[in-house]
Amino acid sequence: MGKRRFSAVVTKGEVAYVSYCPELGVASQGKTRTGALANLKEAVGLYLEEAEGSKVIRKSGPSVSTFYA
Q1: What pTM does this model have?
Q2: Cβ proximity of 60 and 1 under 8 Å
Q3: d(CA 8, CA 30)
Q4: Residue 44: what are its φ and ψ, rounded to 5°?
Q5: pLDDT in tens, the chain (69 residues)
């Protein structure tokens, strides 16, 4: 599977940072901005792993590479 870049939007909530990947509609959170991005990368990886076997993404589809914030 080749690599693909995804964007990330990170906002500071009252208790934690919230991270969101608009291309996939996947969100996560963390105590710090860095933690929120790391958790989002993991969530996107899990999403893509699950979607790989479905009709959502072909087997030659994307994988997690770089996030922009």
Answers
A1: 0.74
A2: yes
A3: 13
A4: -65, -40
A5: 567 889 999 999 999 999 999 999 999 999 999 999 999 999 999 999 888 777 665 444 444 445 654
